[in-house]
Amino acid sequence: MEHGESVTSLVIVILAAFFTPILMHRLRLKAIPVVVAEIIVGLIIGHSGFNIVDDSTWLETLSTLGFIFLMFLSGLEIDFTIFAKKGRNKRNSNQTNKQPSAVWIAIIVFLAILALSLLLSYLFVLGGFIDNMFLMTLIISTISLGVVVPTLKEAQAMKTTVGQTILLIAVIADLVTMILLAVFVSFYGEEAGNMWLLLILFGAGVLLYFVGKRFRNQTFLETMSKGTIQIGTRAVFTLIIFLVALSETVGAENILGAFLAGALVSLLSPNQELVQKLDSFGYGFLIPIFFVMVGVDIDIWSLFSNPKVLALIPLLFIALLVSKLVPVLIMRKWYDWRTVVSSGMILTTTLSLVIAAATIGERMGIIDNQMEGALILVAVLTCLVTPPVFKKLYVNNVEPEHKQVVSFIGTNQATLPVVRELDNNMFEIYMYHTKMEKLDEKITRSIFDITQLDSYDIGLMEKMNVFDVDILVVSTGNEEKNAEIASYAKEKGVERVIARVEKPGLDKELKELGIDVFSVLLSSKALLKALIVAPSVVDILTEQESALYEINMNNPMYHESLIREFPFTGDVIMVRIFRGKDSIVPHGDTELRLGDHLIVTGSSEYVEELQSLLEYGF
After folding, report:
1. Structure pTM?
2. 413 DSSP 8-state letter
3. How confident is the model at residue 341 (pLDDT cuts 50, 70, 90)?
4. At what angle do helices 161-188 and 145-154 cross, to 10 degrees?
5. Element (H or E) spanning 147, and its range?
């Protein structure tokens, strides 16, 4: 009978996780993060509501695995390349109020958050709400990277300077609070004093990083990544289990091992297809079970029986707001009040690490079950309240898109015609050439502004800020030098690197590093074949009246509008929609969303009209 009840509870939780996003879509609850909705559904079916979910070994195991996988994906979400980006202050010398590196701003803001959190925690200890100031400091200072990232994406803020700064603050908070949580466990756990054993865990992480870096591009591994073998996925799960087991062995929490595994995989720049598989498995199965069970285990009614715990909820919510809003005032030097306040609001979101800290604190006997529930409830409230406020303040104050900075290394017949065609309103172009390579002086003087270099030495180009760009095109006459420069630029964190190579083997190596490759020979061959086989396709790409255009959907008014209900009736056809990593063939029931990149064709005047409507809102 117990087995039957166990399976019944599992089915109820699975059904709850399945129907939650469907109900949110039908009710158009766009402002609520899905994970928060899952916790609320858990409250309804759990101890606070109908109480139809019983204790189950199945659910306990799957919930634990979901928590571990959530911490792994939290580590995987960290893009370490953003720490290598220097910003564009050197390029944009016309700014009246130059902003220092986003990394330094983020570090200063987070240190201020940590210091203020420590002070607020001391006040909570003085008030008798909690005995451990260390634990409360972690709870107040943490920021939910899992909520910040999608919120920034929805608000079209990811590529803005302020968006990058917010993201960096959240990343640093995620890293530091996770490490401090491990230190907390080593101090206050059953085996206190074994903090030095954490060095074994981090030492193992460093060793595994170098092993992974050594073998990640091996040909035999690529062959085994397909079909029924899927060696990449197996390697990731082996890494998670190994580091989780090692983490528990040295006396730390298993979530630290999972987080470290995610950070390692992120450092190794995994294949995007593999990342999508891991996201699908985590957020499609294990993680929803965990969040539903978080809600199931909270007994809200018991909180009303303890006045102190009940009073803690609004006070902690205010403390979370103060701990973020006050430190971000540092940013007022470079941004207006709306941007600063909206930044503080989105940084107030806390969820995963608060749940982790509260769960660990309850398990260690530092806080009781009621206090744990109150802490999680406040974390849920921050995710319900602050993202909508951020969107309200920020959407109407989006920074204008900066010109994309493009550097061309090597000026020749392949690059010069392209430079002439690029729109100066959209691209800020820099061109570099060596004195050793012949170049028509008449062209140089009359049309192009080309910087001459003594050589294509990477150190020299680094000093000249050649790599401080959004896009780097490498097209010298030496393929090996192209590959060397492109690889270095990618390691430096240049967002897009395009290299000219003709050798198939070298082509493959660069693509594995995330570098776009073009070949004059192959391009000419493909164009000639297309002219013979499908001349109409070439016409679309080359003729002005039937050309393809890219339009960015930035107008919130048409967010989630169906194409068949879209009011624009001009002579324009939507050919493709690029949404994140997805490529969508549009039809009448396809929704337009903020951030979409639309590929359209039609008369130029109608395309310009549609562009004004979607990109500029008029």
Report:
1. 0.65
2. T
3. very high
4. 170
5. helix 145-154
